[in-house]
Design brief:
4-stranded mixed sheet; Dipeptide-binding Protein, domain 1; 19 helices; 5-stranded mixed sheet; Dipeptide-binding Protein, domain 3; about 600 residues; globular; alpha+beta; single chain
Amino acid sequence: MAQRTMARESTTKTRRQLLHTAGLIGVVGVAGCMGSNNESGGNGSGGGSSTTAAWIGEAGDGNLTKKHYNPLNFKEQQAAIYNYIWDPFAAQNDFTGEYYPYLITDWSVGKDAMQLQLRDGLTWWDGSKVDSKDLASTLKLEFLVNGAPETIDTISEKDKTTVEIGLKEPTNASILEQTILTKRLNIKHDVFKKYVSQYDQASSDDVQQKVREKLVNDKIEEPYGHGPWQVDQVTPGKITLKKYDKHPDADKINFPTVEFNQMGGGNQKRWGAIKTGNLDGTKSFVESSVGETFPDAIKHKNYPANWGMGLWFNHDDPVLKKRNVRWAIAHLFDRKTIAKNSDATKKPVKVPDGITNAATDKWLGDLTGKMKKYEKDTAKAERLLKKEGFTKKGGTWHEPNGKKFSLPINVPAGWSDFTLSVQTMVSQLKNFGIQSQVKTSDSSSYLSDLWPNGNFRVATYGWAAGIAYPYYTYRLTYADQEVQGAISPPDTVKIPPVGKPNGKLNTVDPNDVLGNLEKKVDKSTEKKLMQKLAWLYNYTLPCLPVQEKLDQIWYNTDGWEYPSKDDKAMTYYDGLFSWLPRQGKLKATQ
């Protein structure tokens, strides 16, 4: 079974995700059990190992019995339980980017194809085997809806446990791994076979689009799965899962049920729940002053979110299109103070080069010392502005045309961490003599009008793509159509040779460098190309990365045994509370 040509993949976070991640962090929890002060109800009443666990958080608004189980229809889906009922292809270390095989036990990337080996012994809840047909169907429909890299050509089943992804041309293995291994097997072929068949037989993009429209609006009413928990009971306010004993890792799990309870009230409600023992784990921001009031049994771990707030420059602006002006503005900000004045989960960007702090040493090494740090230096900012014809009169800076230099900073209303940071930035601009203000717009108009249409001089937006591999941030910056429409950057830039800041300027097309990185490359070439992208980003500054976000996980050790914080099983932020039981590393102790 082969797949027709795929749509272009959207591998970066959407602008809505980038902005909303700051305020709508998914809430996951594992709550237990015997001996705890749990008040959610139905949490066991015996001794020994008769315990339950529960997801307590954003199970969705409304009646949970009305939710559906089509993972590709994002309206009213039962998404809270997905990590529990469907196995991930692999887990990814959020600190290093390393993959830990799971449902996909082995993979290889060759010149013409990528091969995936499916774990043996998996069965659907109805007893049928999970096989390559299910894996191929998952990939086909996922790519149909969300797009695929242009280099992917076909998807075929080589045998019962092997799927081959045919390539149009040799492709960077790191990009393929990030695209494929971060998924989970969530399509049962027998449930979705009509869509798979229609797509395989589609004769044009228009036909594919019609299939896509039907698929994303379909509601699968009956739950299906193959993970270590299966749906047992759904009420308007709670979902109960029971352990699926035929799963290969069922013996590693010593608690029989998982519960997901609706809980409104925002962060404050979750803080109260974990403090009182009604919630044993959550992916949620907790204010420092609140965390200090938690019992000693409540622990937490920070994870790199691989993105944060950036200040984007509109290159259509006659002033901001000048590199010296962007440099000058960057030298006006104290990024440490900005991050500190936001909240405890924000850290200042050390080197504004498009690579997150944690990944800088891996990709740049000694080159980091030759990058521009853009530390606060008002004298340097003054020299750069004067070089472009700016003047300062009566303590206020004026543009070359004589108008006062005004630089309001746009931020979506309601995003408190963005707003707190921007307030500090505005203060620092004013102290230098540049007129500025916090300019808010409701998030809907910000996303649909102000940002995509470039209706700003400078605007806040996520500067990185939320993925450890830096390629995705550079693709967001230089190839994402929405970003291009927002900031209108030039097609080519002039930069000195990598590592030689005072060298002769050469014209470079960032998309040419991206294109070379997308090809099959050895590790040495990959690193050189990444360094070139970092160098041109740092020199031309299409965006000033201001701060990075840290994700937080909080968990209750009262009644539960967790591994140490430095255990590699504790590195998988997105699915931590469903991953640890699969590894036998989250144990009920009462």
